[in-house]
Design goal:
It is a single chain. The protein is of the alpha/beta class. The chain folds into three domains: about 55 residues, no CATH class; about 190 residues, D-Maltodextrin-Binding Protein, domain 2 (3-Layer(aba) Sandwich); about 170 residues, Periplasmic binding protein-like II (D-Maltodextrin-Binding Protein, domain 2, 3-Layer(aba) Sandwich), CATH 3.40.190. The protein contains 18 helices and eleven strands. A five-stranded mixed β-sheet has the order 8-5-9-4-10, sandwiched between helices. The chain has a four-stranded mixed β-sheet with strand order 2-1-3-11. A two-stranded antiparallel ribbon has the order 6-7. A hairpin with a 2-residue loop joins strand 6 and strand 7. Helix 10 runs parallel beside helix 12 and helix 17 packs antiparallel against helix 18. The two termini are about 50 Å apart. The N terminus is likely disordered.
């Protein structure tokens, strides 16, 4: 207000006017400081104050010159997982008219020109069963072959524990206040304060495309509820819960051959492949908190009534009459075939990026987040998978190269957020593959609710205590007895927690 009054007085003085301002009250208006929003009284003439000029963006890396140095990216190219991030990192290496690929090519060229670097890609064709051991063996060999790695989050959780990754907690180049870094998710992956080893940001775009989502047949929804957006509306109202989902899938199920037995080929309300991978996003979607970080290290905090209810609801869902968890074609592709044939209202296990694989399906596809435990839960939570590809810096990178590496990562993340993500998110998912404004809003909802990667990063290092022995194992036996499952494995889980904490503490004591 002082600035506004000063500008007004200056204009009036220039015009030679003499006027006295009285009765000016303090304003709480949030309008731009460069313009007035009304009159002080009925007799006062409005005075238009010119808006202040926007400050021109000055790129802090504009004068950076690495003399053509190679930025070496160890990028994952395996096709064994549901999603793969290499297309967003390496791309085809040429313009081909495809929006996302061309954005990747142009981003790579822009960053290379800005920093005066070149790019080298070392392709890693690793599987779920050998990624951790292979990378560990390569790092132990001591060869400085890569600046940064992109691979599965569960592998990096274990490699961080064992001291094979650089700690970027105190790095001053990576600006985690920027939206192109998933700062909250990176902090969630800290086992103890001061140890940050896992990089999650726009450059590692698989973190977005591998987020779990449910898909529904909106034609079937319309047949039963006279509104194709029935489930979407329920979601926006905060009423998409375990109970509402169970009610819907049991309503839509149909014994199509009339033999009195529900089996593959009949129409189910919900279909998935198995209970382990399919259960994880439902569990994390309940906003469960597994640990609390204390002065004495992390402590388990999920032995409570909420976990009891979660396991009960998981059993009700997966063993509902309208649910099918086994398929002859036991793959995510086989699951989409069943879905496309109209044999399931909703399918699980698939990721946000899988929407691009459903272009041949003739009916209208609806997108849904995973349900809340109940309506008392404040927010929906979308889960990453343990094979979501994120980033890490290997310990083989010399400390004197950290400035180079993190500068490249910061600029690549920044430019990905500006160019690649909009092409993928807006043109790819929303416009090219989805149907209607409500679906676009739901993609927004899923994107904005990605959080809590701690359990998928560290479940393996904690002997499977978080996701397996306390939830997946009893669920597989159709048991709702959480207390017994927890008590049976508590000693093993607690011992694993202490061991992992001590390993991370030793890393910090050793300066990493």
């Amino acid at each position: 207000m002082k600035k506004i009054l000063s500008l007004i007085l200056a204009l009036l003085m220039t015009a030679g006017a003499a006027s006295v301002f009285a009765g000016c009250s303090e304003s709480t208006d949030n309008s731009d400081a460069g313009e007035t929003t009304g009159t002080q009284n009925a007799n006062q003439t409005d005075v238009q104050v010119p808006a202040e000029e926007e400050t021109e963006f000055i790129d802090p890396f504009a004068d950076t010159d690495f003399g053509g140095r190679d930025f070496r990216v160890y990028t994952s190219v395996d096709n064994t997982d549901a999603t793969n991030g290499n297309a967003f990192i390496q791309g085809t290496g040429e313009l081909n008219g495809e929006a996302v690929n061309d954005a990747v090519f142009e981003r790579n060229s822009k960053v290379c020109d800005l920093l005066n670097i070149s790019l080298s890609f070392i392709e890693a064709n690793l599987t779920y069963s050998n990624h951790e051991a292979t990378i560990k063996k390569q790092i132990m060999a001591g060869s400085d072959d890569w600046d940064v790695m992109a691979n599965d989050i569960m592998a990096f959780g274990s490699l961080a524990r064992d001291g094979y990754l650089h700690n970027i907690y105190s790095n001053e180049i990576l600006d985690l206040s920027k939206s192109y870094w998933y700062a909250d998710a990176m902090r969630d992956c800290q086992f103890i304060e001061g140890g940050m080893y896992i990089l999650i940001g726009d450059y590692f775009t698989d973190a977005l495309q591998s987020a779990h989502a449910l898909y529904s047949n909106k034609n079937l929804i319309n047949d039963y509820y006279n509104d194709p957006n029935y489930l979407q509306n329920m979601t926006f109202e905060g009423k998409w819960t375990f109970d509402s989902m169970i009610d819907v899938i049991n309503t839509v199920m149909l014994d199509t051959d009339g033999d009195g037995t529900m089996k593959e080929g009949d129409r189910f309300g919900f279909t998935c492949i198995g209970m382990w991978g399919s259960m994880i996003p439902f569990l994390i979607g309940t906003d469960i908190q597994f640990i609390e970080r204390t002065e004495n290290g992390p402590q388990y905090c999920f032995n409570n009534e909420r976990s009891v209810k979660i396991l009960e609801k998981l059993n009700e869902l997966f063993y509902a009459d309208g649910s099918l968890t086994t398929l002859a074609d036991y793959s995510d592709a086989g699951l989409r075939i069943v879905f496309g044939a109209g044999q399931s209202l909703i399918i699980g296990y698939n990721r946000l990026g899988d929407l691009a694989k459903m272009r041949d399906i003739e009916f209208t596809i609806g997108i849904l987040p995973y349900p809340k435990l109940d309506e008392d839960q404040q927010n929906y939570v979308s889960s990453l998978h343990d094979t979501s590809e994120v980033g890490a810096i290997p310990m083989t990178l010399p400390p004197e190269s950290m400035e180079f590496c993190t500068t490249c990562l910061e600029v690549f993340c920044r430019e990905t957020g500006k160019t690649v993500i909009p092409k993928y998110y807006e043109e790819g998912l929303k416009v090219k593959y989805s149907n209607g404004q409500d679906d676009a809003r739901l993609i927004d909802l899923i994107h904005d609710s990605i959080s809590s990667p701690f359990p998928v990063a560290f479940n393996g290092t904690l002997s499977g205590f978080l996701l397996g022995t306390c939830f997946s194992t009893p669920l597989g036996s159709h048991s709702s007895d959480f207390a017994s499952a927890y008590k049976k494995s508590e000693k093993v889980g607690t011992k694993a927690l202490e061991k992992v904490y001590n390993a991370f503490q030793q890393n910090l004591d050793n300066g990493n």
